[in-house]
Amino acid sequence: MTEPILTVKHLRTYLPSAQGLVRAVDDVSFTIARGQTLALVGESGSGKTITAHSIAQLLQEDVCYGENSQILLGDIDLLRLPEVAMRQIRGRRIGVIFQEPMTSLNPVFTVGEQIIEVLRLHTTLSRRARNHRAMELLHAVGIADVKQCMQDYPHQLSGGMKQRVMIAIALAGEPDLLIADEPTTALDVTIQAQVLSVLQKIQQELSMGILLITHDLGVVAQVADQVAVMYAGQIIEYAPSTVFFANAQHPYSQRLFESLPSLNKRNYLLDMIPGHVPSLIDPPPGCRFAARCRYAWDVCETQLPALTSTGAQQVRCHLYTKEQPLTHLPVSEKQVVMEKVITESHTLLSVQDLTVHFPIRRGLFKRVVGLVKAVDGVDLSVQAGETLALVGESGCGKTTVAKSLLNLVPATSGKVVYLDQELTHHKQDLRKFRSHLQIIFQDPFASLDPRMSVTDIIAEGLLAQRLVASDKARLEIVNRLLQQVGLPLGSAVRYPHQFSGGQRQRIAIARALAVSPQMIICDEPTSALDVSVQAQIVNLLKNLQQELGLAYIFISHNIAVVSYLADRVAVMYLGRIVEEGRAQQVLATPKHPYTQGLLQSVPEVGGGHKILAPVQGELPSPAHPPKGCHFSPRCPHVMPICRQSYPPKAVIDGQMVKCYLYIES
Amino acid sequence: MWAYIIRRILYAIPILIGVNLLTFLLFFVVNTPQDMAVVHLGDRYVTQEAIDRWIVTNGYDKPTFYNPKAQGIDKISDTLFYQQSMRLFTFNFGTSDTGREIGHDISERMWPSLALAIPSLLLGLGLNVMLALLMVLFRGTQIDTWGVTICVALMSISGLFFIITGQYVLAKLFKWVPISGYESGLSAIKFLALPVLVSVIAGIGSGVRWYRTLFLEEINKDYVRTARAKGLSDIAILFKHVLKNALIPILTGVVVLIPSLFLGSLLLESFFAIPGLGSYTIDAIRAQDFAIVRSMVFLGSVLYILGLLLTDISYTLVDPRVRLN
C-alpha cells in the first residue's frame, strides 16, 4: 500500500442538541491511500456524513471532538488547524461532492463563475488561464457543450449535469482527497453509471484518495477498495472490498446483505432487522447492535467489543474476540417461504392508448407552441392479485401514468377501464372508484398531513366514502389496520412527525387499505427509505397482497425491488412502454437495447469491481422527442430505419418489445 | 422576457379600469353628491336650494353613467363618470372643492415628499442590511441575541415616541435642527435631517429582523455548504453568495414601495410641517375636500399597481431562474 493520504484516528464528534450531547461519531479510525477509494457504508443516522463533514471541518462551530481524536491529512492534523489555515485545505487539498446536486449549486451564479471562484481562490492563474482551466474541467467530467455550460445557470442543467459540475468544482483545486457524500443517490442508474465512471477515470489520472459515503452496497462493490461499515456512530466492520463482499463477518453486515431484495429471493420473505438504532445521546454500554442481534448473549449487553482483527478484516463483535463461543457463524436462519399463488385471474384494470399531454405556452398571448408528451400512448392491463412494475428513468412518465389512472392528472385521450367501467371522462361517479383504487406516494414525510392524527389520516377515506357510519366502528377499523401494517396500538392518537420514515410509510399503507381497495398504485414507496426499512415495507406489501388478494402497480426505478416483487414488468422510455413481459423473463433476458442498458447499469452486489455505463447521454426532452425510435440517439444497435419511424410492437417469447431489431424487414 | 413584461403591462390595464370604477362608486354612488354637499355646507341650517346650488357649481348634477337627454356621443360623455373619472386616466385631476387646481398642487408638493422619502428609504435599507448581515455573521453569539432583543424593543415603541422625543431632544434641548417647517433648495437639509432620522430609526426594528430572517434562511441552504467546501471565508460567503440570493426578496420588497414614495408620509409630514403630498392628503381629509381625497386615492392605487409591475420586472432582471424561463 502506498503512503496514506488521510489517517483518521479515534475520531469522536459530539454535537450538542436540545436533548443532550449526541455522540454522532464515536471512536472511528481509518486510512485512505493515494489512488484508493474507501467506502463508508451505513444507514441514515449511522454517522457517516458527520464523519465526512468532520474531516472537511464543515460542521457548525459548537461541535466538540474527542481529546485524542486526530484527522491527519498527510502530516497536518486538521482538528488542530485554525479556521484560516483550514480554508487553504478546503477546496485545495480536500474536494467535496454533496448528495443533492439540485440544491448544492448557487442558483444565481453561472456554472463558469462557480468553478472559476475556486481557481481564483487557490491558484495563481491569470483570468484567461482560469477560464481555460474551467472549460478543461467541464470537459473532463464529460460535458459536451463546454462553452454553453460555462454560461448556463444551474437550473438550466439536468440532475446528472449538475452533479458533473459539482465534481468539476470539487476537482478544480486538484485535491489529494475527494469526499463524495452519496454522489449518485439522487441520480438515475444510467446517469449514476456515467458519473461513477467519470469519477473513477479522474481518480486514476490524479491518483486522489476518495472517501465515498453511500448506503448502496452495489455502488460500493463497483468502486471501493476498502469498506468500512458504520452502525450507530461506530465502525463495526472494516475490510478490503473483495474480502467484505465474499465474507462479511459482522452480524449487522450480514443482515444488510440479507435484507437486499433480489430475483432469487422472490419466493421468500426478506430478512428484516428487528428494532431500531439506539439513541446516540445515551448509547447502551455494550455492543450497540446487541439489542437487534440474533447472536447476542450477556457479554454483548454489558461490554463494548473492540475492533478485532480477523485476518484481512477488522470486526467489532464479541463473536470474534477471544471469548468466542461459536466457531462458525451460521450464515442465515431458515428463510420464510412465501410462494405466490394467484387463485383467480381476471382483468382488473386495462388501459388503452393512454396519453397525457401538457401544453407549452409561449409569447405575448401564451399561445400553445408545443406539447410535452409525458405519456404518449400507453397500453397496460393488470390482473387481479398480480403486481405490475412500471420501471424507467425519472422523466419517463411513469408517475404521470399513475396519476392519470386515478384522474389526479386528467388524461388527454385513451381509455382506462376498471372492471368493465370506463373511468376516463366520468368525473362525477369517479368518487366511488376511489375506494377500489388507492395510491401510496414516494415521500412519507411529505404525503401525510402533519396536523392530523394517525386515526384521522386513516379514517378520512372511510368518512369521504361514507363507508362506515359509527365512530366506534371506524375506530375499530383503524385499530385493525394499524395491527395489520405492524404499528403499535398506541399509534392511533399520535401525529406523523412522531414516527420514523418506515413507520410513516406503514401509516400511508394503512390509509390506502382503509377503504378496502382491490388495487394499490405504489409510487416509489421505498425510495426514501434505508435498505433494512425497505425490506420491512416490501415484506409488508407482499404479505398484504397474499392476505387480501391485492393487485399492485409498482412504480420504481429500483430494479432489485422490482425483481423481488413484480410478476410482470413494463419498461417505459419517454412516455411509451418499450418492453413488457413476465418479470423473470424481462429481467433475465431483456430484449430492448434500453432495457438491456438499464439493467446493466444497475450496480450489483456480486458484480465485482467494474463500472459499466452502457447507456450514454441523457433522456431527451419529451417536448422534442427524437424522430423515429425515441431511444435511437442513445442506442448502441441503431440502424437507419430507427431514425425514420417509431418501431411497431413485436412479440418475442411472450415479451412485447418495440424495436426494429426484432422486426423482419 | 419582453413578452412577459408586455403581458404584465397589459394585465395592469383592466386593473386600472377596475380601480377607477371602484373609486368612482365609492365617491359618487356610496357617498352621493347630496351627502358631500351636506358634509361640506353643514347639515344644521342649510337649505335644499343651497345644497342643489353647491352640487351644480361643482358639476355633480349630471347623470351617473348614461345621459338620455344628450345627443350622440354626449350620451356617454356628458355624465358624472365620464367627466369626473375618465379624465383621471390622463392624470387630469380637475379642481378641488375650494377651486384650486389639484394637478398643479400635486406636481408642486411631491418634491418635498420625495426629499423626505428617498433618503429615508435608502439610508434605512443600507443600514438595515448592514446590521442584519452583522448579526448573521455573529449568529448564535451575544451580539446576535442582543441585536434581536433591541430590534423587538424598537418594534414595540410607537413611531410617535420617536417623533416627539426627537423633536424634544435634538430640536428643543440641543437646538441642532429646527422643530418643524420646510424651505426649498439646499436649506431643506436642516429641516429634513430629523424626520429622516426618525423614519430610519422607526424602521430598524422590523427591517433588521426581516432581513436577518432572510439571510439566516439562505445561510442554511446547501449551496452555502458548497461555498464553504470551496474554502471561501465566512465574509466572502455572506457578501457574495448569501447576499446575492437574499437580495432577490429584499430588492423586490423595496421596488414595490418606490412609486408610493411620491405620496409621502402622512404622519411625519404633518408633525414636521413638511408641505408634501402626505400633509396635503391629511389637510384634504380634515377639510372634507372630496375632490382631492378622490384624486389621492386613485393616484395611490395607480402607483401601487406600478410598484407591483416594477416588482415583476425586477424579478426578471435579478433572478436568472425567472429571466431564462
Detailed description of the structure:
- The complex is a heterodimer of chains A (665) and B (325).
- Chain A is of the alpha/beta class and 665 residues long.
- Chain A is built from 21 helices and 25 strands.
- In chain A, strand 5 and strand 6 form a beta hairpin.
- Chain A starts with a strand and ends in an 8-residue tail after the last strand.
- Chain B is an all-alpha fold.
- Classes of the chains: A alpha/beta (665), B mainly alpha (325).
- The interface between A and B is medium-sized, with 38 and 27 residues.
Strand content of chain A: 15-25%
* Alpha-carbon distance between the two ends of chain B: 8 Å
**CATH topology assignment of the domain at 109-288 in chain B:** MetI-like fold
Strand order of the largest sheet of chain A: 7-8-9-3-10-11-13-12
Mean pLDDT of chain B: 85
Tally of alpha and pi helices of chain A = 21
**Basic shape of chain B:** flat
**What is the CA-based Rg of chain A, rounded?**
26 Å
Number of helices, where a helix is a run of at least 4 consecutive DSSP H or I residues of chain B = 15
Query: Main interface pair?
Result: A-B, 38 and 27 residues
Whole-angstrom Rg of chain B: 25 Å
Portion in beta strands of chain B? under 5%
CATH architecture of the domain at 109-288 in chain B: Orthogonal Bundle
